[in-house]
Amino acid sequence: MSTMTDQARVVAANTKVPGVFNAQYDEYVRYNAAVVNVYSRASAVGLFMTLNLGGEVVINDQAIFSVKATSPIRPDDLMYSGGAMRGDRIVIDLRNNTGAGITSDIVVDILPRG
Asked: Which residues are CB-neighbours of 12 under 8 A, at least 6 positions away?
């Protein structure tokens, strides 16, 4: 299993953060077939996520529903679970539509199949 984490990222008021995991080692899936699980949390309402997996948008500007002060808890804070193939790129964008900064934590687990 591979895990990518993005902890305590502050998304400034009315801004978008593209490619949260750009240049991470596991940005591209390394397994022939894998299950990708994305867990997230925000410090306040108003933070939205877009997930592009292998060139396909699987979450489009969806509100992060877990609002709390702790890191994401597995499986409670699951935003997405789905399949991926070797070479698929994982791209997560965050958008804040409020007038104040919001802190987020995102965890991506990549589990090989077979």
From this structure: 96, 101
Maximum C-alpha span of the chain: 46
What are the 10-residue block averages of pLDDT along the chain, 114 residues in total? 95 97 96 96 98 97 95 96 97 98 97 89
Cα gap 63→68, rounded to integer Å = 14
Q: How far apart are CA 61 and CA 29, in angstroms?
A: 23
Answer for the pair 41, 105: CB distance below 8 angstroms, yes or no: yes
Q: Which domain holds residue 107?
A: 2-112
CATH number at 57 reads 2.60.120.380
